[in-house]
Design brief:
By secondary structure, the protein is an alpha/beta fold. About 30% of the residues lie in helices and about 30% in strands. It has a single domain, classed as 3-Layer(aba) Sandwich (Rossmann fold).
């Protein structure tokens, strides 16, 4: 029987061995994420968390846009160190959270929970249910969740690990408790080595006592 790799060790090894141009998920500009975030019209002081952010440049662009309360969560300390080094003095304007999202305890509630390409690594029903319960609890009523996952036309694994593909309907079903879908779109992500991966991006609003009623 093959032993499943330790998740933290797996990602620490990946980030220690490979540079950004050697991993498929690298984006020079996280354009779709930024487009979704701008549409929420959040105040610049709104607490934002990038789940599985690694050394993504989303944090750079959020700081450039004037957001003042940004957190980046990742299982890999090596990935977070890379991002901090890239930001230089600006790293001190970010809260860095080194944890596996499956065991994460949010220190606060957020106005925006952003996840590009972390959720689809959760392949069992209990993992998915726990993640969604966590996201519901971590978001303020009326807060927003943006999710980017591999679509049904995307890869079936990434970095040697199996993933779970989603369609708009299947992702919406997963978030039917406590969330209202706002919009979805698919897009082809061109990797640094000139291959394409099809992604599904969706945004949702957390429903609660002070949230916008569902129509």
């Amino acid at each position: 029987m093959t032993t499943a790799p330790d998740p933290k060790q797996h990602w620490e090894t990946i980030y220690a061995a490979k540079q950004p141009h050697e991993v498929s998920w690298t984006q020079a500009v996280p354009a779709t994420s930024l487009e979704f975030i701008r549409a929420f019209a959040l105040p610049k002081s709104a607490p934002i968390i990038d789940v599985g952010g690694g050394d993504s440049r989303l944090v750079d662009y959020l700081l450039d846009a004037g957001y003042e309360n940004v957190s980046v969560l990742d299982i890999s300390g090596a990935a977070l160190t890379r991002a901090r080094q890239r930001l230089g003095p600006r790293q001190h304007r970010v809260q860095w959270l080194e944890a596996d999202v499956r065991h994460f305890r949010p220190p606060t509630q957020y106005a925006l929970w952003h996840d590009r390409a972390a959720f689809h690594f959760l392949t069992t029903a209990p993992e998915v249910a726990h993640y969604l319960q966590l996201a519901r609890a971590a978001l303020v009523p009326g807060g927003f969740l943006t999710m980017g996952t591999f679509s049904l036309a995307g890869p079936t694994q990434c970095s040697g690990l199996p993933i779970r593909q989603y369609s708009e309907s299947s992702l919406t079903r997963q978030l039917r408790t406590g969330f209202r879908k706002l919009r979805c779109r698919t897009e082809d992500h061109e990797t640094p080595f000139q291959t394409t991966q099809n992604f599904l991006f969706c945004s949702f609003q957390r429903q609660g006592p002070s949230a916008t009623p569902t129509t």
